[in-house]
Specification:
The chain is of the alpha/beta class. The chain is built from 8 helices and 14 strands.
Length: 367
Amino acid sequence: MRDVSFEIQHGEVLGIIGANGAGKSTLLKILSHITEPTSGCVEIHGRLGSLLEVGTGFDPELTGRENVYLNGAILGMKRNEIHRRFDEIVAFSEVERFIDTPVKWYSSGMYMRLAFAVAAHLEPDILVVDEVLAVGDASFQRKCLGKMGNVAQTGRTVLFVSHNMLAIEDLCDYAIWLSDGRIIERGKPKHVVSAYLQTTLSSQTETSWQEPLTAPGNEDVRLLRASVRPVDSTPVDVITVRTPLELQFEYRHLRAGGHFVLSIALYNEQGICVFTSGSALDPERYEQGLPKGDYRSSCRVPGDLLNDGMHWVSVYISKNGRTIVQHDEVLTFDVRDAVEMRGGWHDKWVGAVRPMLEWTTESAELE
């Protein structure tokens, strides 16, 4: 860690993002006084509870019940405080049947459930959470994220390391992006997440061929350029599930006449073809054929259609019913989720598409 300096105010939720090895966990260990910094200092005002790895502070020979009281004591809680919250902790962790079993027999998921329940319910002034939530199943992850939101609403401070960008945007007031032990960006979560994703995603939103003779195609047509960009926005803007897109294809038609169609196939990251579409010429022009020259064909994909995740586009050009150009994965782009559509749920939305359909709910007299 070098030149890392920041302040967190009482009741704020700080999100910390970055690639593996960026220094996120090291920073939390320094803040939790597990690792001493070689230079600089940390000032903490209040009682701090950390959940940095599965079973932090647990004695494997003790039962779950005994570890709850042990962990509470480590956090500085009095026995009557722990006793008052004990039933709530156990109910949240969902390990009631095994609470009097030594935790050395717990699975990693059971360890994590009980450790998080203790850290979140024993009311530390500052809660430090690393990406250990990935150990639990999907339903428990949702419950943990919801609990963290509740902790923040009660005025306690939370430091949250996660690769779940949606959770960072939804739960955090402020975010920092670490890389190689340095702060690269800081500010509002949406801004920091956007900057991080733009530099880490392997998208190819534009492909061009400067030399027509070597461009994909033949003596009939040559593909010169393909691009995808948000409608009414800049090419570098982040694409979300709500963003309308424009796909553009530029090509040189070298031999006049013939029935000419440019088509695309869009695939998701599972390799499923989401849809296919083709350029639509009016019937008269289609019969006359396409004159020689340079052309640009564009199509728009509406917002609120694609699911989040990586997508790629393959392009096909046919003439007189025969495919004469095929270029697979000519474009790749990532579609990010939109926080405002989730209502606090952060799991993957199942399906190749997720259209915004019109719903109505009204009272009804049922038999």
